[in-house]
Amino acid sequence: MKKIFICLLLIVALVIASAKDQSNLPTLTVSANQVEEEATHCGYRLMHKDHLFQKTVSIADCIGINEVVNQIEEVKVSRNTAVELSFDETMDQLVILDWQQDVKLKTSNVLIAPEELGTYVYVVTAYWGENEATYVIKLLVE
Questions:
Q1: 127 with 92: CB under 8 angstroms?
Q2: Structure confidence by residue, pLDDT tens digits, 110-133
Q3: What are the angstrom distances between the C-alpha of 123 and each of 15, 70, 134?
Q4: 71 or 21, which is more confident?
Q5: Which of 5, 7, 47, 119 lies 20 to 30 A from 97 at CA?
Q6: 119-129 burial code (b ≥16 CB/10 A, e <16)
Q7: Running DSSP on this structure, what letter comes out for residue 91?
Q8: What is the share, in percent, of the chain residues with pLDDT greater than 90?
Q9: Rounded to whole angstroms, what are the CA distances from 90 to 35, 87, 115, 121, 126?
């Protein structure tokens, strides 16, 4: 009984620590056509300084891009529209990946919507200090 209680206590502690880490993630706002939407988090790696010389890492992966894409709303944009990606913190580097074509697009904070109509999925990875977070954006070009 004592072992079960200790296991349950450890699980609760891990869930609380994970929730705390996710609340510290920068927010990515997607802006286009005077509409702003918050992007969906899809994993992170955060460094923590526990003591003077000791660091720990918190890592979480999302359930899978396919599942995330099926659960999130599209940001509706027109053809060739500038889509601005802005964070509530300063990022050292930003990498945008066209998920359907598995192609790295650019490392700036502006994405140009495609010419062709349809739904497009982008995976954005942001780096700051020793940390990184991944976000998913779904655009509907109308």
A1: yes
A2: 889 999 999 999 999 999 988 999
A3: 25, 14, 7
A4: 71
A5: 47
A6: ebbbbbbbeee
A7: -
A8: 38
A9: 22, 7, 30, 24, 10
